[in-house]
Amino acid sequence: MPGSSRTYAFLGPEGTFTEAALLQVPDALQAVRVPASNVNAALDRVRDGSADAAMVPIENSVEGGVTATLDAIASGEELRIIREVLVPISFVLVARPGIGLEEVRRVSTHGHAWAQCRLWVDKHIPEAEYVPGSSTAAAALGLLEQDCTYDAAICAPLVAREHPELSVLGEDIGDNPGAVTRFILVSRPGALPARTGADKTTVVVPLPEDRPGALMEILDQFASRGVNLSRIESRPTGQYLGHYFFSIDADGHAGEARVGDALAGLHRISPGTRFLGSYPRADKQVTPVAAHTSDAAFSAANTWVQSILGAESVAGESGSEASRTA
Amino acid sequence: MPGSSRTYAFLGPEGTFTEAALLQVPDALQAVRVPASNVNAALDRVRDGSADAAMVPIENSVEGGVTATLDAIASGEELRIIREVLVPISFVLVARPGIGLEEVRRVSTHGHAWAQCRLWVDKHIPEAEYVPGSSTAAAALGLLEQDCTYDAAICAPLVAREHPELSVLGEDIGDNPGAVTRFILVSRPGALPARTGADKTTVVVPLPEDRPGALMEILDQFASRGVNLSRIESRPTGQYLGHYFFSIDADGHAGEARVGDALAGLHRISPGTRFLGSYPRADKQVTPVAAHTSDAAFSAANTWVQSILGAESVAGESGSEASRTA
Amino acid sequence: MPGSSRTYAFLGPEGTFTEAALLQVPDALQAVRVPASNVNAALDRVRDGSADAAMVPIENSVEGGVTATLDAIASGEELRIIREVLVPISFVLVARPGIGLEEVRRVSTHGHAWAQCRLWVDKHIPEAEYVPGSSTAAAALGLLEQDCTYDAAICAPLVAREHPELSVLGEDIGDNPGAVTRFILVSRPGALPARTGADKTTVVVPLPEDRPGALMEILDQFASRGVNLSRIESRPTGQYLGHYFFSIDADGHAGEARVGDALAGLHRISPGTRFLGSYPRADKQVTPVAAHTSDAAFSAANTWVQSILGAESVAGESGSEASRTA
Amino acid sequence: MPGSSRTYAFLGPEGTFTEAALLQVPDALQAVRVPASNVNAALDRVRDGSADAAMVPIENSVEGGVTATLDAIASGEELRIIREVLVPISFVLVARPGIGLEEVRRVSTHGHAWAQCRLWVDKHIPEAEYVPGSSTAAAALGLLEQDCTYDAAICAPLVAREHPELSVLGEDIGDNPGAVTRFILVSRPGALPARTGADKTTVVVPLPEDRPGALMEILDQFASRGVNLSRIESRPTGQYLGHYFFSIDADGHAGEARVGDALAGLHRISPGTRFLGSYPRADKQVTPVAAHTSDAAFSAANTWVQSILGAESVAGESGSEASRTA
User: Fold this and answer.
1) Quick check: B301 and C192 CB within 8 A?
2) Reaction catalysed by this chain (chains A, B, C, D) (predicted)?
């Protein structure tokens, strides 16, 4: 049973949206799943080999950690994104058995989750006091402890399903019914996931200099090859305010010529560029490719240039010009 | 006493880094200062007129709220940034009187602050358990309450100074000694702060279409006029994943021709562009301006174009061409 | 008879394609038409007031003079293009009365015309010797002189029509049946021709510096405003090899906001930019305009920027920040 | 005597500036030199093998032929530029023996040469009548014929030196004392001339579509790789008015990575792009190369991309994700 030996870390604790994301990965269902207390800890498990991969949030997270993820994979030992997972964000209000909605006085959850349920809270439990929790799941599980100082928690449906002893006082209580969070599965560098035609490539590019146009030059590496960007974020390098790196998602796979060529361009302009992976898009939306940026166009162009250079012999000083035409 | 009638809101509670930022504003020292429980609440006070201005974090915050700020000022009734303030981030560990470092078992603080003091904690109180707090100040003040469930808190030096009854067990305990957070003072739209030559302009630009080059076109509005960008962040619009707006800080003041011209260009490309203000840079670094992007160059160019168009009369069908030259 | 007082110069002599172009201008039919021996002489007549306008070739001329025109209008006292005219290029072989095709031994014409009839000549009069002529018309008219040293001439149909004493030995003898030459009507600066929606604007832009990207910056002034170029030619400034100016035709009229804005941008980058006119396209092809580069978009953008700046008062040092928001 | 078997064609006749250019090529001094009556004829001799190379004007020619050259090498069987030569343009006035300056009534020369000596002519022989000549040399040699219809000719110093029977009535009579014309030596495709660090590359690029930005895309291929352009000219394709190709000289050699990469980019955008050669600059000015566009930078970038792709195995559907990281 080869699956039994695999280990997946995730931003814990159990019952969070991140675990829900991990449960979408078929292999992970049979594998050992290890919650980590923060993003760095999850990624460190991959780096030190105690996990094969880690699931962490990358965009729009309810539990925080997004900027931590961006920063953590931008430095340190190299890692690779091998998969992305989208999780619809839906909240429930859970309480200790026997507590009714009208009895809820103090509610705990992660700060981000609290912010996303304000409308429901204002309408149904306007008097409720907020008790910060380190995660939605921790808040929910805290209700099961003896000395719990609050009455209810806002959490993911997953934790409620896993703990039927909690009573659900409200479902779908988020302000934004279509909310989605994006998670990434991160491993050590290895073979790239196969091209599917609907892929995404993630890079981290330090801004080479603080001059007008430096960012333009970077983006031009994509635009001039018809590569669309689906995400770009500036992040401080942490060295000093005003010094940035860019975290960029581009449509396409590094194995496609136009993407590989853009990567080479980035490396020239900013040699500290870090490749974070090419992997299938969660939404399976196929990337349209114009004829002049297709693999065939790149291949034809290279063949043409090689044919020009092919006969290039370093004609010596003594060679007559006319003889070169023979 | 005109100052007595002014009111400043800030992301509270009292004693946080945000209040420290507000105390750097001379007018605020004499004014009423009102803590708000979150960024939206602070900004709403400005919008509804119950505060004249609000101080909120915009970059690199210890207490969170940065993305909340980016999102809150990007929509709703228009607001304007009129000042930026930089606050060095320095943490202290405080405890209830009589508690020594060796007795600290449970420590509370905001999650972001906890993440930024890991090295010191691992070295000096490795066994300490983390108790989430809604802010650094709240965690510190909680120590003064009867039923406090933790022994110490990580907070800003300000709150320790304001509450001498707390004993300081560690100073400068942050992992990154040079850390700085940037805050903005936000008001309702009105006269722009005067040009100083060392100004910054902030805009929010919805990406018009998801096509290669759309972002390039936006950035080109700055680059082609020699306007440098000091910050660019993509933020999801919240409508659907993959739909973004960009929050951008550019060097210069909207009253400068090259910046005004760039703003006009942004508005053409993306009519939903929102102007968030022109205001003095906290670091007072003067913006260098090339001759061909100076106000004089713009003025000369406009005069030239006007001189070309000046004599333009809509010559009728019957007018002879040669007569136009008379 | 108002038309009687007007004078048009043209690159002569009479009977050339340039006169054919001039005869397409309704006003010119009644006016005095003065042939000039070269492009400079024709333009000088406009500059010194002895002609109201001059017709000269600008593109693809049979009689030469195109580069002379480009250079002559690029320097000296300013002139303006007020009209363009297209003339289909069709050649005839004419001879002295009584001469048959088989008797033609020596043929005169302008060198460019000779080059454009090689196929016909090689097929029908392969033995013919070439005698250089200063123009097609001069060659044709020379046949009527007593001591003419050649038997036939290649010229425009116009001169054959005007001189029925010449016998036509071949019609439509050009190698390229669809050939067209473009001419411009040039006057002193005055009111611009009215906008028609199908206009062209011509400028001369000295390349500011010999650096990568200088030309890009110039072209970007057009591209970033959606202005298409229909012609671009580099011409040496004559000062030293490798120093260029660019002669550019752009779609649109200087009175259109996107074109006027592009002109202003050119002037900033290269203050020596010279405006040579906005005038109706000979082919009457309407210029498509994208919504975001329409006059309405520019107007809305300017109004928006003005509204931002509108309330700008230079708030004094003593003014409180909060009071600015009142 | 290996030199004896080589043949060079040139735009004739003998004694023109083009022959002066050819005499700067060491090998040509011993070779057979064949004048051709026009540029096409000269190039056809190379194409059909009856000459090894041909010298023709490419820029600023006194004898015309420049646009003919641009057009002739842009189509037909491929040719290669292997050398460029600069010739200072200096004119002399020659006459039949016994004729003094005051007796000169009719002067023959090429039309371009006539235009370049107007100041001297207007001052010294203002009454002189112009007789068109097919070249400066033909005009000069015509003086030696019995039935010559003119008294003097304007020609290159070379023809006067070769024919001492002509008397020189004026030297350095050109209006522009620093005038220079550029010539190219053209051969059939073969090994490229060796890189010298001071090279030039010439290409012909058909404009792919008449849309805003198409030319920008082409130029961006150079600019984004730091390749400077020293010449750009639009030429009509001859198919219909408004359809262009661009003749471009770029600094650098196709064997340099940044130039080769730019060529590949051109080919992708406009597959009809034609390579006309890389050859040493006549002025021997070394091309400066920025670090990030050096061969080393390109090589490092490619190595980096290969290292990313190196382990790429098309992982099958059945492969588990975690196993890829092993």
Assistant:
1) no
2) prephenate + H(+) = 3-phenylpyruvate + CO2 + H2O
Which phi and psi (to 5°) does residue A34 adopt? -115, 115
Two structure tokens written together for C147: 């001591």
- CATH assignment of D191-293? 3.30.70.260
Q: Which CATH superfamily is domain C1-90+174-189 in?
A: Periplasmic binding protein-like II (3.40.190.10)
Q: Name which of D309, D326, D304 is nearest A192 in CA terms.
A: D309
Minimal C-alpha gap between D98 and chain C (Å): 25
Burial of B220 (0-12, 13-18, 19+ CB in 10 A): buried
Q: Please give the order of strands across the beta sheet that includes A152-155.
A: A129-132, A106-109, A152-155, A92-95, A167-171
Neighbouring subunits of C (3+ Cβ pairs under 8 A): B, D
Q: Which residues of C touch D (CB under 8 A)?
A: 38, 59-60, 64, 68, 86, 111, 115, 130, 132-134, 149, 176, 178, 180, 182, 210-213, 215-216, 219-220, 222-223, 226-234, 236, 238, 240-242, 244
Q: Which ipTM value was assigned to this complex?
A: 0.84
> Do residues D108 and D132 touch, judged by C-beta distance below 8 A?
yes
Test A227 with B212 for CB contact under 8 angstroms: yes
Which three-class secondary structure state does DSSP give residue B240?
Answer: coil
Tell me which chain B residue has its CA closest to the CA of residue C208: B292
Residue of A nearest to B63 (CA): A111
Chains A and B form CB pairs within 8 A to the count of: 84
| Nearest residue in D to A323, CA atom | D52
Closest in D38, D68, D226 to C212, CB measured = D226
Alpha helices in C49-202 (DSSP H): 66-74, 111-115, 118-124, 136-142, 157-162
Superfamily of domain B100-156: Periplasmic binding protein-like II (3.40.190.10)
Task: Tell me the shortest Cα–Cα distance from B149 to chain A, in angstroms.
Answer: 10
Q: State the pLDDT at residue C224.
A: 84
Q: How far apart are CA B185 and CA B277, in angstroms?
A: 11
pLDDT tens profile B164-187? 999 999 999 998 877 888 999 999
Give the pTM.
Answer: 0.82
C271 chain-B contacts, CB cut-off 8 A: 297, 300
- Nearest residue on chain B to A181, judged by CA atoms? B241
Other beta carbons within 10 angstroms of residue D240's beta carbon come to 9
The tens-digit pLDDT sequence of chain A (326 residues) is 444 579 999 998 898 899 999 999 999 999 999 999 889 899 999 999 999 999 999 987 777 668 788 888 988 899 999 999 999 989 999 998 889 999 999 999 988 898 889 889 999 999 999 998 988 999 999 999 988 989 999 999 999 999 999 999 999 999 887 788 899 999 999 999 999 999 999 999 998 865 556 788 888 899 889 898 888 887 777 655 567 788 999 999 999 999 999 999 999 999 999 999 999 999 999 999 988 899 999 999 999 999 999 854 333 333 344 433 33
**Angstrom distance (rounded) from CA C314 to CA B192:** 8
Q: How far is B279 from chain C (nearest CA, A)?
A: 11
Helix (H) or strand (E) holding B71: helix B66-74
